[in-house]
Structure formats: C-alpha cells, structure tokens
Design brief:
By secondary structure, the chain is mostly beta strands. Helix content is 7%, strand content 49%.
C-alpha cells in the first residue's frame, strides 16, 4: 500500500520527472524492389504487382478455386536498382486462413499457416528470385496468399497479397 501512495504523491509534486513514451523507431526505407504475385485457379488468373516505393493496393484481388483443386501460385522479387546489390533480404511466402476477404494483414505471423516458406538471399543489381507453390486445398474458406520482404531483424519492408476463396464442389 505504501508504494502506491508514494507513486501517487510523487506524481503530484512539480519537478518530479514523468515517464515519457518511447519514440517510435523510424520505418526502414523501402528497398528498390518490385514484387509480383500470381494465382491461377479455375481457368482464371489473378495478379498483383507492387513497384519500388509503391504501397500495395488498398483492396486485394480475389482468386476463386474449388475444394480439392490445385491453385498455381507464382511469385517474383526483383532488385530494380541499376548499380547497388541488396544484401540479406528475406523473402517470406505464406498462405493462411482468414475470416473474410480483404481482412487487414496481421503485423506478426499467425498460427496455423497453410504454407510458410522463408528464403534469405542477396539480389545483385537487376537480379531476381522466383518461386511457385502448387498444392491442393481441400478445406473451403478464405485464404490470404502473401509475399513479403523482411530485413534481417524481421521488419516488413514491402509486401504483396491476394485472397483465395475456396468453395465446396
């Protein structure tokens, strides 16, 4: 009880230092990279591209698939810089269930990812890296397909995302 009373009284005395909120760290600069993400399912293709220093679209496009179908997902990251290599870039590709299309992205990785792949790489000037993912999805629902670039500390630098709605046969 005494410590609480002391804190209350100390807060009332002028000149006693108050705790200040810590300043937010500055966001790291966006790398000079372009990201492309493509989902091909049900005979249709949905894509998104995020160019250097461009924010991702406000609304995500949605691909449609039927339970048991194998959507083809392709991604590409390219260093658009003419002279400077990018060192220690982390490419993180993941698919996880969400409640509804265009649900806001979580800041942290979510439990229960359907797919989760991580690649650490250096990108030479004009260099690129690509990948693909082809696995059947049997459970109907809405899935977020996301590709993000992280710095070595895990801070998200850039991302591209699409939604995939899987329906019953």
């Amino acid at each position: 009880m005494v410590p609480l009373l002391f804190l209350f009284l100390a807060a009332q005395i002028p000149g006693v230092p108050r705790s200040q909120p810590l300043p937010r760290p500055k966001a790291p600069p966006r790398p000079p990279t372009s990201i492309a993400l493509v989902i091909k399912a049900g005979g249709r293709e949905v894509r998104t591209t995020v160019l250097p220093r461009q924010p991702p679209p406000a609304r995500r496009s949605t691909a449609q698939a039927v339970a048991g179908e194998t959507p083809q997902v392709r991604w590409m990251v390219q260093n658009e810089g003419q002279k400077t290599p990018l060192r220690s870039v982390v490419v993180h590709f993941l698919i996880h269930r969400i409640e509804e299309p265009n649900q806001p992205l979580a800041e942290e990785p979510q439990k229960g990812s359907f797919a989760d792949q991580v690649l650490g790489t250096d990108l030479k000037p004009r260099g690129k890296t690509t990948g693909n993912y082809n696995t059947p999805i049997y459970t109907p629902g809405v899935y977020l397909v996301e590709l993000e670039l992280l710095d070595p500390t895990g801070t998200r630098l850039q991302y591209a995302a699409l939604d995939l709605t899987v329906t019953e046969r």
